[in-house]
From TrEMBL:
Protein name: Carbohydrate ABC transporter membrane protein 2, CUT1 family
GO BP: transmembrane transport
Keyword Calcium: no
Family listed: Belongs to the binding-protein-dependent transport system permease family.
Taxonomic lineage from the root: Bacteria, Pseudomonadati, Pseudomonadota, Alphaproteobacteria, Rhodobacterales
Keywords on record: Cell membrane, Membrane, Transmembrane, Transmembrane helix, Transport
Annotated InterPro entries: MetI-like, MetI-like_sf
Statement: the UniProt record of this protein carries the keyword Cell division: no
Localization (cell): Cell membrane
Amino acid sequence: MNKARSNPLNTTLMHGALILYTLIALFPVFVILINSFKTRKAIFREPLALPNSESFSLIGYETVLKQGDFFLYFQNSFIVTVASLFFVLLFGAMAAFALSEYRFKGNTLMGLYLALGIMIPIRIGTVAILEMMVATGLVNTLWALILVYTAQGLPLAVFILSEFMRNVSDDLKNAGRIDGLSEYAIFFKLALPLVRPAMATVAVFNMIPIWNDLWFPLILAPAEEVKTLTLGSQVFIGQFVTNWNAVLSALSMAIIPVLILYVIFSRQLIRGITSGAVK
């Protein structure tokens, strides 16, 4: 196995495959960014060319800032994403700690029940969710989205974090109990800091679907004052005419926060993914 790893050909092929995958993944982002700085004619004439003195234009960004309430949409998306991630990480970590630390009747069954949420898309229950939100008066509120995204992210959070919680030293937790720490103190002061890489992994995996989602904002919160960034960008898409400059500019502005957060948490993400690979 070590020989295979040290084989220059295998290493070259592996790196080549990774580079190719990276280029394929970044290509749509590149196309969106460069075309957001072009005129409408240049977008259709040379979609893969870089902007030059003739094709360069900021009309798309000007349209987004003037016609659409971009900052309100951005604020709504930011609030929904941050609040949802907070509840997903908090409740997911608490549930994972309980399932890994305490042995009770139905422990395994409860874990399997939560894991089913990974395999069953939450959109299947859209009608029931909408009826529930109407009954509780949460339609056209950010809380409707926060609650749905929290429920959507919990199964994966529990599944990932429970594996890391099992690796937290029992001696450390027992020492805390001997010193008089409560179970909440053991969770927040001892267990939680040790699973930060895993929490960063869960945060990244949930952040992107929440930030980019169009389905639930369109159904649960279509009002102007609670529109998210993705839904707000749809105002530039018409039945017969689409303002592609504005659409691409709005998408570019929506991509930037995700890229920044990914760069910030990339080290923790890699640590979380690779933890446990080497014992």
